[in-house]
Input
Amino acid sequence: MDKIPYQAIDTTEGNNHNPSQLFIGQHSAPETYAIEYIQKKLCPHNGCLVCTTCRNIHDKQHHAMRWFFPEKAYTRDELAPLFQTLSFALDADELFFIVIEKADYLTAACANSLLKSIEEPPAGYHFLLLTDRPDQILPTIRSRCTTFTVQSTHIQSSTDPLFHLFTTSTPSDPSLFLKMLDKEKPTEQRSIALLDKLLAHWITSYKNALAAGDVDMQNNSQRVLNVLAPAIKHPPMPGSSKIMWKNLFLQIKK
Output
């Protein structure tokens, strides 16, 4: 198993840091990061990837985790084993991870039944909720989780003119930007893919600046990441991509 270079950026609204965690990302990023996260917590070698513990976690067969994956909307019956698991007290320093994949499939009834457990899990228990559609997660669930946006840390490059525009530090002419936006006509899917690449680019920029001791670049990278995080957390709805890019331009290139 090769280590997948993912990084999770804390995008929790407000300053609350709750014990349960919500991992947001496209495709398999949240799942892969959750597996790596649990490996680091349970592996005696800090996530070596090759020991029996790591392999069992990778295969979702480890005794200290329970992984839920729905084919469609969750039902109370499907979550019944979760509450049975929580009824068992853990030994001191023992950890157990409950992973709810596709947390956006939680119905209002299912979500409400989980609120107390997610807000105050029994000692040793940890909830990891995964989704690629954060806008579909009920606010009552989001408010009880520390939220992380998960992205690859591979250096991203692109020939897309919008990517180039938002990865340079030079000022840009607003009138030229609007002409570019009218010409490019970015779709929702293209916008989401570009946001992923931009986040990975600026994560790498921040890490490089940190290693080089470049405070100005570090502050600028952090500023851009703070602007990008809400856009990724709430991707553009149909017909709203141009508005989103205009707002990003005003915040990042000002």
Summary: The first helix runs from residue 29 to 42. The radius of gyration is 20 Å. The chain has ten helices and six strands. The chain has a mean pLDDT of 85.
